[in-house]
Amino acid sequence: xxxxxxxxxxxxxxxxxxxxxxxxxxxxxxxxxxxxxxxxxxxxxxxxxxxxxxxxxxxxxxxxxxxxxxxxxxxxxxxxxxxxxxxxxxxxxxxxxxxxxxxxxxxxxxxxxxxxxxxxxxxxxxxxxxxxxxxxxxxxxxxxxxxxxxxxxxxxxxxxxxxxxxxxxxxxxxxxxxxxxxxxxxxxxxxxxxxxxxxxxxxxxxxxxx
Length: 210
Hints:
210 residues, alpha+beta, 4-stranded antiparallel β-sheet, 3 helices, 48% helix, rod-shaped
């Protein structure tokens, strides 16, 4: 029968302890305790050096989420306000373009003898038809035109007024949006001016139903 042993060349006369005997000898319990403490220290270093920074970074990111949500809500509010302003500007730009087109049509269709005094655009709600609730009636745009023409013998003023209204209704810019609601011819409230009698012309155009 033969056994294996190791010779410690650095310490003559002693038998070297193998790694298996390191933990089972008389000093094995103390050495095992040191090994456990060393392993725990290494594990602690791994935790401190690798896991804790990640945990702190994630905690900082989580704590920043409410602030980011507030910033996002503020940005959405600003975006909504900007969108509302842009829509209002676009609507105003379209209104200005339509108004410029109407002014061009009036300047082209107005006879020289007729002097336009005012053009007023308003929005009003017409009376509700029977059986329909008032809140269901859509407001309509109304164009009121005030003009004057000199009263002369014969019928030229009346013909010019009729031609003026017919020209407006034939103009695509006007006829596409408005229809003739009413018209009226009467002497102005101020009477004659510098010996010339004038006729007041009131033309009311209403927006066509869409």
